């Protein structure tokens, strides 16, 4: 009995020490990171962003359990350069890829246009996370370098890839093949236009498998879904059958709701595997919506502009970030940031060094409820048609050619960018012009344009 009295405190201290060690190891393990990105989805196409039309219960729950942002910007108003900004931490003026196509092939058939790949020397989020000891996976639409180029995902930091490497191929939801790493994976059920397998479902299931396979190690899963972009086709739109919309609008809404269901299954799996509290999940869209959804769904509300335009409707995107126990649930932030901030944010999350010569800043302080200094400015440029835009504080400047006037808008009072105040604030206009000159570096594929064409002029004259 005396021996028991002697040993019992020792045993208790040993148990406490073991538990403390386990807790410390859990705390020291860096968080898993999942970055989900929809394709061509509007800012207002989620219930938590005041959609009255599209049902997104799981993303709404994600917002209720995390932080929802109101002033996050895409890297570009089209697919490839916005992904390039995300991957490299740079804004449009410094990107390898600044448009879906080059300006010298505009007259060629779509399939013959040059798709400029990431260069071998481009340092990506994938490579950074590999260097930090993470397992890295990309599942969905890549669009930054076709097979055989330096821009393929397995050459740009991803241990594993499944989906569409070519961005044009990604328009087809009933293709008869997808790519796994560099291999072609046949989908025989879709041969000869049989349309039996919806590829989004394959990629959603593959994302769950990736999480299961890497549950014992830190992982980064980049999940750029193809929905609701492309041909607006979906196996079932019955949820919206009673709506007085054109068929493609019903399909578009059903595609978002189907994606929402799969995101819900992902969160369920994280809980089942005990990974929920050590996994930070981001959800966003790659840029603004296409015009067919502006009137029936109010997809860009409360903004003006659509995909391919540097107005707020083309650039402002939803952003929800959830990390139980770290990010305060149910918070809404108006801190402005952009896709080029994701790379340094992930670097801080992974406790690794932020790459040099990037344009982003870490927004982890904001995610954790702390104050931080905002960007001095945001800069974008786009080439079909040519546009430049700058945001400084609440001021937004847009011009449609290097020799065209800058149109100036006060986003606090005029989020639709309807009232040009350039004549009243020449000092701010001059600052915008200086930034446009400073932020742009020349590209051999995308020369700047001096004077706006008729297509470009419609951007500021027409109210979408």
From TrEMBL:
SUPFAM superfamilies (alphabetical): Alkaline phosphatase-like
Superkingdom of source: Bacteria
Keywords of the record: Hydrolase, Signal
CDD domains: ARS_like
Signal peptide residues on this chain, from the entry's feature table: 1-25
One GO MF term: hydrolase activity
Domain Sulfatase N-terminal: 31-350
InterPro entries: Alkaline_phosphatase_core_sf, GAG_Ulvan_Degrading_Sulfatases, Sulfatase_CS, Sulfatase_N
Record-linked Pfam families: Sulfatase
Similarity section: Belongs to the sulfatase family.
Protein name: Sulfatase N-terminal domain-containing protein
Upper lineage: Bacteria, Pseudomonadati, Bacteroidota, Saprospiria, Saprospirales
